[in-house]
Amino acid sequence: QQQKRARAQLSCTACRVGKLKCNRAHPACDQCIKRNKESSCQYIAAPPRKKPNQSMKERIKHLENLVVELYNSNNSESPESDPSANGSKSTPSQNESPANGLNSAQRPSAQQSWTVESDENNNAFGRMKISKTESKYVGGSHWEAILDNIAEVRAALDEPEDGPEGVSASPASSDQTAATFPVQSLLNPNPNIKPTRADLIRALPSRPRADSLVAGFFNSQSPTVVAIHGPTFQKEYQEFWGNPDSRSLQWLAVLFGIISLTSRQEDYGVSHFRAPKGQTSEETRKYHSMAASAIILSNYMRPAEGICEAIMLYTEGVYMDTEHEDDHLEVWLLLGLNIRVSLRMGYHRDGGNHTKISAFLSEMRRRQWSLLYQFDVLLSFEMGLPGMMLQTAQDVKPPSNLFDRDFTSESDPLPPGRPDDELTPCSYSRTKSRIAKAFGKIAEHSHAINPPSRSEVLMLDKELQEASDAIPPALRVRSLEDSITDPAGLVMCRFNLDLLVQKSRCLLHRRVLTEAGSGEFVDYSRSNCIDAAIKLLEQLARVDAACEKKMMPRGWYISSLNVHDFLLASMVLSLELDRRLKALPENGDAVSGSQDLEEMRSMLETTYQIWQKPMHRSAETQKASKVVLLMLSKV
């Protein structure tokens, strides 16, 4: 007898008990709000769907058999693989379908939740994944798209995207997700609560507590510190406590953003930069919510001075609460809002060309725009999408190399900038901005429909090298043994700059990995790409060792922006290993070259071991680990 399926409980528990009509609003429904029972408004999660009659062991075994069969089929005597069938060396085709090399039983089922469409030019068009509940595109530069060039990996990984327990998404679950995360939640996590200015001021902590949180922000490693002029903010802060009505709502939003960031750092200690979801304190969530409310109340649709900084601080708080790449969609959307508000206010035009903008405001706008550009190119690249800020539409000068104490809001003109080799709080941002501009051009080319010409690649390579050569000596990466007495923040800055340089090299020369043949340009480009990938993974090993010795905060390189760099490097090495292994039966000298095969294998083994540590386990690293293990099993 067929068992009846239990109906999912949609109403909150309180409404179900009281047999009331529930509108399923979050965080509290209308009935609970009317009865002042917000704290008891809870929703029961949908029961897990039954998995197909196939155990995890069977799936893994099937994958292993598939890998072996595919590897053997590459070496079998077939018109495609037999060298004697034609005189030219066989090369992997970029426009083969995902099902190539599979019989009908091994091809992805039509009932699978995800379908993958690969265009003829994989590098240009990227990877499109479409399901009943979501459409997701990543460009050809994304680490997942690189896998499409490895046929057996592509076949093994292009299966239904399951949740943590293998539960696939359903229309019902997508409806629940839409109800849980309404559109307005981007800037209003509690749409049912609409505080006034008086409510915002009452929500502030006591003066001693606020002083502590503000001081903590200006002494932190937050990248947004340079966007707030310390002496000016301190003066305005003192005036505010004397007369709370003296400051604008935009300024109040900045204050809430500052104290929420510091409170969030206290939640999980100074050794980390983000906390697992659900582990932020009630105090942090309150300040974060008040920051959003102040932004909305200030009417950001008619932006005034301070609103861009407020949105940036709020966005940083959202970013710090995210754990995985998929969570960054909300951050990316908020960043888009920040960029468009900044464009509306003319931040993309240098203030020095406009008499109505003071020298002080011009400098602070440059700092803000520089940070926005860095965030845009880096986060968009991680998302596998083109950047939102066009370099051709901006003429903003780089910020000056000055301490905040070097100028005031009345300074006109600004004092001359200090030498580049003299470190200031702006030195890191200035240096990173130069490299980010080269990286932005490279990333833009990686999304181009028509690939860049060889002359364009060499021109970008030269520009990147010039930006790398311009790194001040104090910010150049050095061994950990030579950094023992240096502040952890300075060591992190050095690693970040080097990671950006190596990632840029990797991305610029990646296209050549799928090209057949050789030649001066191909050999140069391939050597650069592989060398950059190895350097990235060497940095991962060094930083992991430094974190074990408490020399650096572990949370820095667990952040998905940095993990993405290491994923990219490991996929590049996996792709190169795949290329060389396919050449082995025909050419016994295929392993020779500028980069040793054993060195690549060793780096992948080390990377795999690092990713198996509990603190690194995420959906992205585990998917990459599967690919790395697959490649290692073939060497």
Flag low-confidence runs.
Answer: 77-123, 160-184, 270-277, 589-595
Radius of gyration: 27 Å
- Along the chain, the helix and strand elements come as HHHEHEEHHHHHHHHHHHHHHHHHHH
Biggest sheet record = 3 strands, antiparallel
Keywords: Metal-binding, Nucleus
GO cellular component, one term: nucleus
Organism: Rhizodiscina lignyota
Main location: nucleus
Description:
The structure is a single chain. The chain is mainly alpha-helical. The protein folds into three domains: 1-46, CD2-Gal4 (Irregular), CATH 4.10.240; 187-396, no CATH class; 432-632, no CATH class. 51% of the residues lie in helices and 2% in strands. The protein has 23 helices and three strands. It has helices spanning 13-18, 30-34, 56-75, 122-125, 143-146, 151-157, 171-180, 197-202, 207-218, 230-242, 249-268, 282-297, 307-320, 328-344, 359-383, 427-446, 454-469, 488-509, 520-548, 554-558, 560-583, 597-611, 619-632; strands spanning 115-117, 127-130, 135-138. A three-stranded antiparallel beta sheet has the order 1-2-3, with no helix packed on it. Strand 2 (127-130) and strand 3 (135-138) form a beta hairpin. Helix 21 (560-583) runs antiparallel to helix 22 (597-611). It starts with 12 loop residues before the first helix and ends with a helix. 34% of the residues are buried. Residues 77-123, 160-184, 270-277 and 589-595 have low confidence and may be disordered.
